[in-house]
Design a protein that fits this description.
The chain has one domain: Up-down Bundle (3 helical TM bundles of succinate and fumarate reductases). It has ten helices and no strands. The chain is globular. Bound molecules: protoporphyrin IX containing FE. Protoporphyrin IX containing FE (HEM) binds next to helix 1, helix 2, helix 6, helix 8 and helix 9.
């Protein structure tokens, strides 16, 4: 007998629950980022809070686990779907919904998101929160770290490409996740697509605002 978490629907369910958890993280992360637009003091304060608050420290490994589960199941689901191709072993939604570009490319979009995430963690997290974990020296001015990176057009371009891939991934992922957990009657399908579009766009715009803010010198260049 197939186990619940290894059946097709079980895998989709794990993908959607871990995905929703990561989407909540993104709301918090984008919110914290937005404080950079209000100046050095406020931003450094929120970074310090994130790096030292005990609840956040407990949540960091949970977040990492969320990513690991989401990625491992993505590989497993994609692999099973490839094996079953042609048999139409598993399909959710109608043909038109399932054949949107983002829907067909969720795995590739996910690879782009996670690939750039590694670079991103190296840029910031490794110099900030990680240092608190390993007893090293954390940056005492995260604002300057962020500002310095985003004064370089190449990195702004890289981050904008990353955020574009994330936007596509979220636009389909949000909708698909809610559909998987059961919000899939015809009245809700259209509504969910709008809600997913709003969620993905707001997250992407807030993330994009920070690099553009520094690139355009809106911080006053200090
Ligand atoms: C331009 C937009 C972004 C900026 C300015 C930014 C900034 C930062 C900074 C400063 C940290 C280090 C926080 C600390 O160590 O206290 C961090 C950590 C992190 N970021 Fe971002 N980030 C951006 C976009 C993203 C995106 C799009 C994702 C996910 C797809 C992401 C995922 C993470 C993760 C997983 C961590 C480590 C966990 C944590 O400290 O919360 N970030 N980010």
């Amino acid at each position: 007998m197939e186990h619940i978490f290894s059946s097709s629907i079980g895998k989709k369910l794990v993908m959607s629950l871990s995905g929703m958890f990561l989407m909540i993280f993104l709301i918090i992360h984008a919110g914290a980022n937005a404080l950079a637009l209000f100046g050095r003091e406020m931003y450094n304060e929120v970074c310090h809070f994130m790096d030292t608050n005990p609840v956040i420290q407990v949540m960091v490994p949970v977040l990492a686990l969320g990513f690991v589960i989401h990625i491992l199941y993505a590989v497993w689901l994609t692999w099973s779907n490839l094996k079953a191709r042609g048999v139409q072993a598993y399909a959710v939604g109608t043909k038109t919904q399932a054949s949107s570009w983002a829907a067909r490319n969720m795995f590739v979009l996910g690879l782009i998101v996670v690939g750039f995430l590694a670079l991103h963690l190296y840029h910031f997290w490794a110099k900030m929160q990680l240092q608190h974990f390993i007893g090293g020296h954390a940056s005492d001015d995260p604002y300057s770290l962020v500002a310095a990176l985003f004064r370089q057009p190449l990195y702004v371009a890289i981050y904008l490409i990353w955020i574009g891939a994330l936007w596509l991934h979220l636009r389909h992922g949000f909708w698909s996740a809610l559909q998987t957990i059961g919000l899939n009657n015809s009245k809700w399908l259209a509504r969910l697509q709008t809600i997913a579009m709003i969620y993905a766009s707001v997250i992407a715009l807030v993330f994009a605002a920070v690099p553009l803010f520094f690139l355009l010198g809106l911080d006053g260049g200090n």
